[in-house]
Amino acid sequence: MGIDSRLVVERCAQLGITDKEFFDATGVFPAEMEQDTQSGQVSVDVLTRIAELLHLLPSDLIADLPSRSALDLADLMLVEFAVANAPHLHDGLRRLLGWTPYRLGLTLALLRILPTSATHRLGTMDEWWLILEPTEDRAHPHDREEYATWFAARIAPDPFDAIALLRVLRVWLWQPVGLHAAFASPALLERLASRHLAVAADTRARAPRMLAENGVEVPVQPHPDLLFALGLGEPPDDTRRLYDASQLVAVNWPP
Amino acid sequence: MPPGDGMLTIIHDPEDDPQITRDALAAHNPEHRQITVHPTAGTESAIVLGADVLAALGCSITQHTTRRQHLGTALHAFAAAAAWLLVDGIEVVIVPRAHLLSPPARHWLSRLATTAHLRVVAVWHGPAPQHWAEAFRHPQHLVRETEDLNGVLAGARPRPPVAHSVGEPMPEALPTLAELPHSGMARFRAEAYRTLDATQFAALDAHYRYGLHAACQWLGGHELYHTLVRTLAPAATQRRPDEPVCLARALGRGRPVPLRWSDTAGLQAFLSGLAVTSPVPAALIARVRGAQAGMLLHGVLLQVPLDLASAHGPGLTGIRVTEQITQRIRRALPNPRFAAAVAVAALTGARPSDVALNAVAPLPRHSSDLVTELGGWSASKAVYRVPLAAEPLLRAAAIFCALTRDPSPGSLFAALHPDEVNAAAAATGLSLGRPWSAGEPSHAWHAASAAWLVGEPLHRTGPGTNDPLPVAVS
């Protein structure tokens, strides 16, 4: 496992972050990062700090995550937290993650029997999940409120998501015929999609060359659920309830 | 002289005319700002007369409650009576058989008239004393003697009617918490539409729309919001409408947003205000999701705790304080301080014992926003919008503290022991919300919320603007 250093460099360039600013925020230089991570042991703290700086999910930064959309790193950290400290959170956790009781039970069982000092890969019937061992502070937080807040910030829209979302909504309201679009990088789209804020747009608009060269190439549009929430769209199709909500990330809406 | 002027009016009836007694008893009508007190016979105690006044106000008072609620002195009993009389707007207190009262009881009656700015009408059936003013130790110029009781009572003014909200869907139609979607704002309405039947969705959506419009109106009338939006205006004009939008660039350097919403107290008051008329937790959650949607339409991101259904605070672990709840509290708890403590527990969703352990400031003169350490985030204070029905309890508590010269006037309940407040809550028989375990966060949901200006508004309030979701709840 290693950090996707190409993505880090790309995002730094997009956001105008210098090496020094990167070091100040994360404690590592971009050039050192690749060497540090080649051993396969990634500090979750460092990973989290980088992800926060670049407005990405920690799992976005893992280069060889087998099933990236299957599970957030942050989800796993909360699962570990729940096992260690807060059994009363189990039901809420399951709802938060949109998991079945079986899936949560399986994860909890596996976490209980695994050694706690290494990086693990867990296999189940249909997918691979990557488990990163959190640092001691993360695994056993003394302050549960702080941890809950930290976790909430990981999966709820943050102000930067909302800035992007408002741009998407504005373009959509101006150009409902789909001739123009807002463009995002695949990573940003995935982040917005995982929060049910936006989906890949059904449009023939192509990103201008300048954007495409920087990896900003996916036209995006507001998620239909969000449009309904804002009173700007029709009621959603009832048949969608058949989908596992987490699968919507991968669905190109409308089909 | 108008009523409510500290006057002592003596109805001298040496013949003991039964009609006067009948008229005095029949005059009891709190809705018309006048009450009739029945002095307990055979006692000279001023405390008992204070308890009689409280009983006339509808309080259930016994020796046991007097002791438990620290009303065992004439000062405290009459301070409680004066506090309730003032917040109820009572202008006339009629006391039959005043000639049987002891001198200290008569003196306290006189003090009640001047303190609570009301008129005491004492019906005196025996021979007249030499000086009425001396008998009651009342200022001479405020004493008047007459035989015309009906003349004195003429002109009683009815109290203004209590405002009732109309048009709310019945709570029975709403889904339970377990049936409610546990999604954030982006999916909440769509999930509700998919998973609830049409009746439940309509009931829930009415509250969603209520929250959305409340947010639109609140932001539309907020000076800070307009100030922040004005700072974005120049940037908006620089972009051509057909220029492709690069989201990464929007997040890059030089962006004017996000701007943190600095009016935290105002935000907390607004959010807790959503709970004031919310009948059940599910309705509050719908209102909050609606408010998030309304704010986003105005370019504001409202962040609330992720799992609202498990959070605590107003509208979730608290109960809706209605006129009936207030009456129930008052009936059981004649001491205004205890009554207010239980009301605060009800409206904040805090444990009753915690009310005594945290500073709760008296309500400001022209505001219904309560400032307290209860449920505060990171040791800071939290602000709660107080329901109209609960305001008299808090104002009565402040008056009571002032009249009894409470040593800690900045905190209403500092003198109470947590166990006493627990017992007081139990005496009301109210089910004060879901208890939460020690591992749960101590802050209330609205105090842990934050807002950011993240862009220009998509929707503008005002006449002629396009309304995305017409409101259904008045």
Note down, in words, how this protein is organized.
- The complex is a heterodimer of chains A (255) and B (474).
- Chain A is built from 13 helices and 5 strands.
- Chain A has 255 residues and is mostly helical.
- Chain A has a 3-stranded antiparallel sheet with strand order 3-5-4. In chain A, strands 1-2 form a two-stranded antiparallel ribbon.
- The longest helix of chain A is centred in the middle third of the chain and has 16 residues, at 159-174.
- The model of chain A is unreliable at 36-41, 65-74, 81-88, 113-154 and 239-255 (pLDDT under 50).
- By secondary structure, chain B is α/β, with parallel strands linked by helices.
- Chain B folds into 3 domains: 8-153, Rossmann fold, CATH 3.40.50; 171-238 and 246-311 and 448-453, no CATH class; 323-428.
- Chain B has 18 helices and 11 strands.
- In chain B, helix 14 runs antiparallel to helix 15 and helix 14 crosses helix 18.
- The longest helix of chain B is centred in the middle third of the chain and has 23 residues, at 198-220.
- The radius of gyration of chain B is 27 Å and the shape is elongated.
- The interface between A and B is large, with 66 and 54 residues.
- Strand 3 of chain A pairs parallel with strand 6 of chain B, so a sheet runs across the interface.
